[in-house]
Queue: 2 jobs
Job 1
Amino acid sequence: MSQQTRMRDLRELQAALRTASDIAFDQEPPAGEQADVLVDALRRALTAAQSLGDGPGETGCREHPRGAVDPLYGDKDDPLPAGWGRCLLCNDRRRRATRASRRG
């Protein structure tokens, strides 16, 4: 991994943690959209932190090679839709898009 890539990942980690910290330490507990933003910031922070480590990614995802593996991947009782991969972050984005399209 190049030094430039490591610095980009570190900046992403720092930005995501600042966002999460701002929301988590606000006077009011996060709810609704703020809670969603907090979860997204924490996921971005985790992805950036994992990308700072060495070794191959488990997700097989070009965007999130070190992201979390979706716990439903390979689940015979609750399978993922056809075409979905191992990446939890991408699958979560697909889930939110599916929910939004049902509402609107």
Job 2
Amino acid sequence: MLTTLAAQAAALHPGPWQDGDAPAFWPVFPITFGLFWLAVLGTAFYLIRRRMNSTAASAAAAADPLARARAVLAERFARGEIDEEEYLMRTSTLRDGD
């Protein structure tokens, strides 16, 4: 008897997965999920690449003290701590010291 009732219930209502077509917005979810993970991977790649570039630049500056001295001198000139005459004088001194 229970089997008959279950068969009749299944015949009357086959379930939500057989009630017709899926909603029209269903592709939005997998596309959004994929774009989310692409954004996560892209951000991770960008941050790792940025860290590697800054490490390489600092290693290059540490390897060449004259390049670091020129960079510090350029920063001081850009901030306005020294004027153009002093900047040119000091860069020529660094250049002659090579």
